[in-house]
Amino acid sequence: MNEKYNVYLVSDSTGETLDRIFLSLKSQFANFEYDKKEFAFVRTEQQIDKIIKECNKVENSLILYTIVETKLAKYLSNQSEINNVPCFGILGNLILSFSKLLNQKAIHKPSAQHVLDDDYYKRIEAIQFTMSHDDGKKVDDINNADVILLGVSRTSKTPTSIYLANRGYKTINIPLVLEQKLPEGLKVNKKVCVVGLIADPERLADIRRNRVAIMKDQSLKEYTDLESIKKEIEDSKILFKKNNWPIIDVTRKSVEETAASILKIIEITKSK
């Protein structure tokens, strides 16, 4: 049995960047057993002392940190070394290398990425827009969207839309339901970026059966019927190809991977 590690994520900001980096890091090791504890807005030596003290109480502790204030980062590194706690700074060397490349000093300001600038308000506006246009709720202002996602039920339209909104893209997602007509604006305005989402029918059937089980509604037989789902997917493919809308198969893709493909499509659409 592999040893279990106690991982301490220490950040002088929200910890979002560090958490994503750790997520990427741990995915590279198949047999990495760990317990994770996060410490956000760490900006004093006293806070660091408490973390080090906690590390000393458990075995196999290690620290990953993103602290941009040089003096505090050195203090954490020194205290970790004194107490024999493995400690790894994530941004330090990168900031130093960029500083040399750009020939300018870094500001070393915590939470600098969370400044309330135009990009921040653009993301907030995109999130509000996307939430109000979820699941085909509003389709009268399609021209205001950056991207429109189409797909049958359970093809990850909503989570993908929310992810894109957090990146600053106003997103509308519209479900393909039986003979329901699509908004005319989709076909008329060729500048609107429309993307079709599909998935493997058997995988969709499993997801829908789980959904129905949670809802405890057994009246939705056609919703979970494999043959019906196959027809849904085939009809959606025909629709997408007829309108020359790009298609993404989300079966084996995470939301992040699907969103990355969509962002590439948006980029290509804008360049036309």
What does this molecule look like?
The chain is an alpha/beta fold and 272 residues long. It has 2 domains: 4-114, 3-Layer(aba) Sandwich (Rossmann fold), CATH 3.40.50; 118-271, Rossmann fold. Helix content is 47%, strand content 15%. The strands form 2 sheets. Strands 2-1-3-4 form a 4-stranded parallel β-sheet, sandwiched between helices. Strand 1 (4-11), helix 1 (16-26) and strand 2 form a beta-alpha-beta unit. Helix 6 (157-166) crosses helix 11 (255-271) and helix 8 packs across helix 10. The longest helix has 17 residues, at 226-242. The chain is elongated. The mean pLDDT is 88.
Outline:
By secondary structure, the protein is of the alpha/beta class. The protein has eleven helices and eight strands. It has a four-stranded parallel sheet with strand order 2-1-3-4, with helices on both faces. A four-stranded parallel sheet has the order 6-5-7-8, sandwiched between helices.
* Order of SSEs: EHEHEHEHHEHEHEHHHEH
Number of helical segments with 4 or more residues: 11
CATH structural fold name of the largest domain: Rossmann fold
Mean pLDDT: 88
Q: Describe the global form.
A: elongated
> Which CATH C-level class of the largest domain is it?
Alpha Beta
Q: pLDDT under 50 segments (min length 5)?
A: none
